[in-house]
Amino acid sequence: MEYISITEFAAKFEVPERTVRSWCSTGRIPGAHLVGKTWNIPYEAMLPAKGKKPKASPLLSRLRQEKDNHIKGGIYHRTQIDLTYNSNHIEGSRLTAA
Question: Which of 42, 43, 39, 44 is nearest to 19 (CA)?
Fold first, then answer.
């Protein structure tokens, strides 16, 4: 398989090199892989589709699910307790961590 560099890909499709680097690092160009500090992009690769958003992380999905379902004792609940304690502690409150 033949590979091209970010510079060649950017010139081929007339897009900024920084944009191509971003596409490679987020996996929006299939087959692109990092060798050392250089991205190798398949010669046949095309521009990624517009408007396609990357998937949410599993942690973010879990936090949203726990928030929507009002689950007590989960990751979201514990995060809320810790954030409340720490922000109040900064302001001089004498609350104790539970």
Answer: 39
Residue 55 token pair: 């998937």
Assign 3-class secondary structure to 2-62.
CEECHHHHHHHHCCCHHHHHHHHHCCCCCCCEEECCEEEEECCCCCCCCCCCCCCCHHHHH
Give pLDDT tens digits along the chain (98 positions). 899 999 999 999 999 999 999 999 988 999 999 999 999 999 999 998 887 666 778 998 899 999 999 998 899 999 998 898 888 888 787 777 76
DSSP at 74: S
Question: Are 28 and 40 in contact, with CB atoms under 8 Å apart?
Answer: no
What are φ and ψ of residue 80, in 5° steps?
-60, -45
